[in-house]
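Page 42, continued from yesterday. The earlier attempt failed because a stray header line got pasted into the input along with the sequence. Redoing it now with the clean sequence only.
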Amino acid sequence: MENLEQGILTQLNTKKYNFNCKQNYQNDISMTSYRIKKKINLVFIDLIVKKNNIDLILKEIDRFHNQNNEKKWKTYIIVGITNEKINKKDLFYFNGECMFVSFLLFNNEADEVYYYDKWIFALGLNFKKIVKEIKDIIIKAYIIK
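This time it went through. C-alpha cells are written below.
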C-alpha cells in the first residue's frame, strides 16, 4: 500500500494539489489522511477492502471526522486495495448529515480499478476530477505494463 500511496502522491503533487494537514489515524483501521482541498480529504487505508468490511471502514471515517471536530461538509476519497469485484453503486456513501465518502479501489489480482465517478452537486465537495486523475495514475503505473 505504501508504494501505491507514494506513487499517487508523487503524481498528484505535479498537478499542484495542496497536501497540507497530513494526519495518521489508528483505531480499528490504520489510515493516513491528506487534505488536498478545503473540503476534500484523500485517505489511504491499510486494510484489504471487501464488501463485508465497508461498514467498518465507514464507521472509522465517521469517527475520524468527528474526532477532528469537523462540523462542516467534507468529502473523503478512500484509496485502497481489494481482491473482490465491487459494484460502482457500493462505492459512494452519504452519512445523511455532512459527509460524502467515495472509494477508489485497486484490484491487483484482476488488474482493475473500481471507483465512483459521478458528479455531486454540493459546493466545493465534488470529487469527480480528482478520482479520475487517481484512477489514471493507477492504470498507468500498475496496470499498463
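Notes: The two ends are 19 Å apart (CA to CA).
Reminder to self: strip header lines before submitting.
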